[in-house]
Amino acid sequence: MVAGINYWFAKLLLQRGCNVLIADIALLPEAKVLLEQYTSQPRAIFHNTDVTSWPDLDSMFDAGVTAFGNIDLVCPGAGIYEPHWSNFWHPPGTSVSKDAVDGGRYSILDINVTHPTRVTQMAISHFLNPPPGIEKVSPANPKRIVHISSVAGHVSGLANPMYIASKHAMHGLVRSLAMLETIGIRVNAVAPGLVKTPLWTDHPEKMKLVNEDKDQFCTPEQIADSMLRLCEKEDMVGGIILEVLPQERIVQEYNDPGPNPEHLSLSNGRKGVEDVFGWLGKAGWGVKGNV
């Protein structure tokens, strides 16, 4: 559901006169307000989309073209933070996992890696093959793809290895597409640290890792501002990973010093590690039917 960073980025674009298509499985009340506020020019529309369905993603682009005639900016913003139902420490077949033991896939990777990768392919194809009468992408007619990655893409952590792996994957994808800037397609990503959004605040198992009196949260508005700078600023070239922690910092591809530990730490992060070893200490970890 469009919330947090995605909501604020959509709102920011609408405030700047851009039409916006919101694609998700449902709308939260604040997103419904945007649709009610922006009905003409600029205009906000909703397209029901399961981001794990490639036909749904394809229809999302069709809906954008039908409504607006052209697409200039794509943000594959959906993501999840290793919930118990698709989690490295709760393997497929165990009682809390919704990943089928014979399914051959993990939901967290479908949402966090496969979906943004496929949307990026579709966006590039659309930019190169626009509808009749629409100018093709070029350095004089640039297009943008902005991913929402995470500081997790350049750190490690025992408690959430698949989430971290998914964000490492997105960092690699964005960097690998840097040279598309030469044909007018800029692909980059923000890498926030802690952001006060429902991705955290609606999940007690995550919030127990945080000391709200000590740990520093960014705001989703701040991340949306950083995303806009990636789109607009000439020096924010393709392939850039822009860390926001809460200060902005471009993450270097080689020999990067790493994020500022003062802005990164989860004061109670040890509780997540203790959970992992607690699960591993139970008889039959990973056996079908067990917790």
From TrEMBL:
Listed GO MF terms: oxidoreductase activity, acting on the CH-OH group of donors, NAD or NADP as acceptor
Domain of life: Eukaryota
GO cellular component: cytoplasm
InterPro entries in the record: NAD(P)-bd_dom_sf (IPR036291), SDR_fam (IPR002347)
Keyword terms: Oxidoreductase
UniProt record similarity statement: Belongs to the short-chain dehydrogenases/reductases (SDR) family.
Protein name as catalogued: NAD(P)-binding protein
Organism annotation: Eremomyces bilateralis CBS 781.70
